[in-house]
Structures are given as C-alpha cells and as structure tokens.
Amino acid sequence: GKLKVFVTARLPAVAVNILRERFDVSMWDSENDIPKDILLEKSRGKDGLLCLLTNKIDKKVLDEAGKQLRVVSTMSVGLDHIDLNECKARGIKVGYTPDILTSATAELGVGLLLATSRRIVEGTNAAKNGSWGTWKPMWLCGPSLEGSTVGFFGLGRIGLAILQRLKPFGVKCFKYNTLNEKTKEFETEHGVTYATFNDLLATSDFLISCSSLTSATKNIFNKEAFDMMKSTSIFINIARGGVVMQDDLCQALIDGKIRAAGLDVTTPEPLPTDHPLFQLPNCVITPHIGSATDETRTAMAVLAARNLLAGLENAPMPSPYEL
Ligand code: GLV
Ligand code: GLV
Fold first, then answer.
1. Do 21 and 154 have their domain in common?
2. Start and end of every D-isomer specific 2-hydroxyacid dehydrogenase NAD-binding domain (predicted)?
3. Are residues 53 and 39 in the same domain?
4. Residue nearest to atom 1 of ligand 1 (CA)
5. Looking at the chain, which terminus has fewer C-beta neighbours within 10 angstroms, N or C?
6. ipTM > 0.90, yes or no
7. Domain count for the chain
8. How many CB atoms sit inside 10 A of residue 37's CB?
9. CA 195 to CA 175: how far, in whole Å?
10. Does the pTM exceed 0.80?
11. Are residues 36 and 116 in the same domain?
12. Is residue 152 located within the same domain as residue 228?
C-alpha cells in the first residue's frame, strides 16, 4: 500500500497535492493548533510527518508514531520544537525550510527596528486617541539608525540579511556575537566585527537577537544582560521567545534599563492579552509573523512537502537538516 503521512495543519493545496499524488495523506484540517492527544493519535503508524514550529515533536510523539516513521519535515527554519537527538538515534531524517524565508524575516526585523526606534505604534495610537495636539518639536522622538552601533546575537542567514538591509541607513558599526566565530574574510566582506557577549551588550544601540534556540542560548537575555545594556538601547527579538527571560525584559523596560523592545516571538505564544508587556508603550509585539509574506509561506509549505516526498522516496531532500 501507499506510505502514510500526517500533516499537522491546514496547508495550501499546492503543497498538500504534492503529497497526495504519492501518499495516503491525512491532515489536521484546521487553523487551530492540534491538541497534543490528537497529534499523538494521528502520528500512530505514519511513515512521515509534516509539522509546524508549534508542534512539539518529542520522544512521546516519536514513540507513538512507531518504528516505520522515517521522516519529520517541518515548515520552519527553527528546529527547537523537534527532539533532534531522538530523531538521530532512530535514523529519522529531518527536513526544514531555511533560505526561502530569510528575506521575509529580515524585512520584519528591519520593520521592528524602525517601529520601535521611530515609535510608530505609539505614534499611531497617539494620532488616533486625540493626543496629537500639534506638531511639537520634541514629541515622539527616537534614536536614529544613522551613526549607530548595531549588534547581532546570532549571525546566520537571517542576521546577515538584516545587516545587508541596514547598510544603506548609515549604521556606523556592526558587531556580532555567535557561538561559532566567523572567519576574518567573512568579517571583512560584510563589514562586521566580533564582540564578546558582554561587549555586544555594552556597546550596541540596537541589539538584534536572531540565533536559534538551543541549550546554549536559552534565557541568555536575562537581568544581568539587560543591566549591561545601554539605557538608550533597543532590543529586537525575531528568534525564539526562549532566548529571553521575559520577566527580566519586562522589568528592564519598566525600569528604563533599556529604552524599547520589538518582539516577534514571546513565551508563550500567543502571549496572553493581559500580559504586562502589552501595557508598555515602549514594547512592540507582533504575533510571530517573521516569514509571513504571501510568497514565502507558500514556498515554505511546498518545500516542506518536497522534503517529505524526497525523504520517503529515498531521494536527496531539497533541504535536509544534517543531524
Ligand atoms: C519561524 O520562526 C521559523 O522557524 O520558520
Ligand atoms: C538561522 O537559521 C538563520 O537563518 O539565521
């Protein structure tokens, strides 16, 4: 019989059809998050899973799926929701969707940088709620990107794409900190210099978090980190909420340890509407929409389907994650 795959969310037909041609496909046909018990039940006996970043693919799911599970394909660049060690131990191939979402996510990163520095949301609200009295010389001012120092925590594809997009703004200095230091050639080519984590914190006017979430980066932006940052600095997170101790960030914003924050990712997601971060005028929160362009989301779904197809047919996946 045909191989069986389970798709954990409603995807564009163009992606699902790639799978339907070859496999026995079942799908959680809803925009709502699949409940864990249903994920476990639906994974049972499947040869392949196509999942989202909101589905925790842990040991339990892999156990439930059983021995014939050979491929886990995620419609995301992030892999922190998948137990990669377990996949490796079981010989399960993993596919993901880097590269095609780099521009979209970089655009959103730049958007959050400008939204926070130029206080766009605060200004929009002021205009709407009647506090726009007249043109006031010092009203709603914010720091300029021109002449600033921009720091990257994590400088992979997305960080680099942001750096390239920021160059025309006249940024004075780009710094980065990552676990794997880049070569001198890379640094010269891109006009960026390595900084220790502490130096990155202490000298950045804008600090952009774009690293993956791992045991090494979890909660790395904590009280000690925010205490070291400039009181005029702006923190942007387009990576994962888990790299930030969110209560510490909230307190840092309240205490003026940093000036503002732009967050596309939070803990949890969705962030409850009564969360204190939503009360802060100097915090702009978007609902994890980094890759959300029309073109990119469809391309991600199609690539995830192609990864699953290739993986199950023992062909090279277009975008494998090397375990
Ligand atoms: C988005 O966060 C992704 O990992 O693709
Ligand atoms: C991370 O995976 C990136 O693309 O920057």
1. no
2. 110-290
3. yes
4. 76
5. N
6. no
7. 2
8. 8
9. 6
10. yes
11. no
12. yes
Same domain, 153 and 195: yes
Residue 180 has pLDDT above 90, yes or no: no
Same domain, 110 and 207: yes
Domain co-membership, 125 together with 222: yes
From ligand 1's centre to the CA of 75, what distance in Å? 8
CA 172, distance to chain mean position in Å, is 26
274 Cβ partners below 8 Å, 6+ apart? none
Helix (H) or strand (E) holding 174: strand 173-177
Atom of ligand 2 nearest to the CA of 159: 5
Domain residue limits at 139: 102-285
264 and 190 assigned to the same domain: yes
How many angstroms separate the alpha carbon of residue 42 from the centre of ligand 2?
A: 30
The model's pLDDT over 89-105, given as tens digits with 9 standing for 90+, comes to 999 999 999 999 999 99
SS3 content of the chain, % helix, strand, coil (to 5): 40, 15, 45
CA torsion, ordered 204, 208, 213, 218, to nearest 10 deg: 40
Active site residue 81: no
